[in-house]
Amino acid sequence: MPLTIQPNLPDPDGFYERLIALHRDLDLAGSRRVNARLILLLANHIGDPEVLDEAMRLALDPAAPRTHAR
Amino acid sequence: MLSTYAYPEFPYVPSEEQRTGRRVRHPVVVVGAGPVGLTAALDCAHHGVPVVVLDDNSTVSVGSRAVCYAKRPLEIWDRLGCAQRLLDKGVIWKNGKVFRHDRLIYQFDLLPEDGHRMPAFINLQQYYLEEYLIDHAHGFDDRVDLRWKHQVADITPAGDHVRLTVETPDGFFDMEADWAIACDGARSDIREALDLPFAGQAFQDRFLITDVVMKADFPAERWFWFDPPFHRGQSVLLHMQADNVWRIDFQLGMEADPEQEKRPERVIPRLKRMLGEDTAFDLEWVSVYQFACRRLEDFRHGRVLFAGDAAHQVSPFGARGANTGIQDVDNLIWKLALVLRGQAPERLLDSYSEERVLAARENLLTSTRSTDFISPKSTVSRAFRDATLDLAEHLPFARPLVNSGRLSRPTPYTGSSLNTADTEPFTGAPPPGTNAADAPVTAEGAPDWLLRHLGDRFVALLFLGEETAPPPDHTGTMAALAAQDVPIHVVTVGRRAGDLVDGAGLAHERYDATAGTTVLVRPDQVIAGRWRGPDPARLATARDRAIARA
């Protein structure tokens, strides 16, 4: 299954608000830790190595050619 | 500074009641002659209610201020008969572009479909809006009493009325009102006098607001930059206004000194970096401000009703200030008129607060989110914001997360006590509590608009589909609704025949209507209830519910 790069969040602004609120009481080190945990949780949920590899490539360079994205 | 606009000076006229010292009880006193107060006064006049408007000043808004007026307020001004002049003078637009550095990353269309009389937005300096509303009010001189240089010094609730102590150039006098409507802005004297808490969040970031006169070839679109080369690390917003005046807002950050930043020798170089050394321009108005998101808990306090910024204050991103204030009074005045005529109980006015607090909550939430995106308050918040912008240029999923302001739309009164819930299925059409949708129609052979046949009164839209007349067994009883104390006027809408002919079928589509579908619309063009067949008894019950006497 390719990586979804089309909008897929039912309430983007609500999600974004909760994401920022997650960090409200954290210092920078705490935020980094929470972000890392969040990535690991979501990666496990996704599972598919091809999707994860494509996401990692695009995170490193959002302009990179897409080989496994839709 | 240049001026493209000559500010009118409205005369102070001593009032009879102040001169004679005889205290007068007025049905409605509006405090504040800004866009919201003036619209309230026009709507009172429209409903036949005499109204006194008090304003501590004697001219219109200084500076362009509100600028962006959305489709729904334009529909309200159209109902009040004064939208055309605004459309003629204003700059019509619907597209927004979001840039990062010097690259376009996202664009939006606020009204992608045709078949609406009103555009998504117009831009117009607030002084023109106020001037035109005042001109329109002069057409109702018998009902609208505009009093300049009248400052409310105190307000005292007194059981079945309120007493206002008013200061004019001739000193103080007292007047009474059955109902007072406070439209006196974010720093409302009335709110202060009643000692009501105005709770919320203040933002530290400062913004420079400029009105620039120039000949420029930017399109009539909303352009927003994150971190542009001409204003590093901050955001910039551009809007076209009338008379070659352009609104340009610069985010300044939390450390900026407002007095320094207002000086032309600071402002002009900023503008030159944006516009280029060769673009000739003049400054018309400059202001630096901070904003806050806060509101009153309740918009009704006995016989004092709060509307506009006096009731709720939002950040400017999304043009949700004046636009929602106009919708406040649209919701309020028909209810007040019914209460004044003794046709509805006072508790109908509690529904004003119920419904408009709902709208204020949505506006506050939305504008706070926009502010947090534009002006991130922590390192991690800024990292997410910048990451979103990194991704949005290349990957579509991130674009809906880019928040440069979500532009004003009407808030549905979902769950309002005035709604009659659906008992039959409808899909893809505005449910009860939502503003009625416009559509092109033909009336008496001439092209017209559906919304122009709604409003000011209760209307039952009776759809005919392909039929040419309503079912005969209902014709008489439906017509009898118009003779009730709070009448319901039936307007038939058919594909081939009817009071309104829906040749293109858009009205049927937008209301998910088939032959017999009946939609009850309130005087503020909000849908109260809808059914698959015309039933006078259900219509009367829904009407009674919508005026809180059920």
From TrEMBL, chain A:
Q: Give the domain of life.
A: Bacteria
Q: Which InterPro entries match?
A: DUF2783
What name does the UniProt record give this protein? DUF2783 domain-containing protein
Query: Which species does this protein come from?
Result: Roseospira visakhapatnamensis
Automatic annotation (TrEMBL), chain B:
- Any Pfam family: FAD_binding_3
| Keyword terms | FAD, Flavoprotein, Oxidoreductase
Q: What class of enzyme is it?
A: oxidoreductase
Its cofactor is:
FAD
Name of the protein in question: 3-(3-hydroxy-phenyl)propionate hydroxylase
Instruction: Indicate yes or no for the key word Cytoplasm.
Output: no
Q: Which InterPro entries match?
A: FAD-bd, FAD/NAD-bd_sf, RIFMO-like
Q: Name one GO molecular function term.
A: FAD binding
Chain positions covered by the region annotation Disordered: 406-439
Output compositional bias ranges, type Polar residues: 411-422
Q: Does the keyword Flavoprotein apply?
A: yes
FAD-binding domain: residues covered: 27-362
Query: Which Gene3D superfamilies would you find in this protein's record?
Result: 3.30.70.2450, 3.40.30.120, FAD/NAD(P)-binding domain
Q: What is its EC number?
A: 1.14.13.127
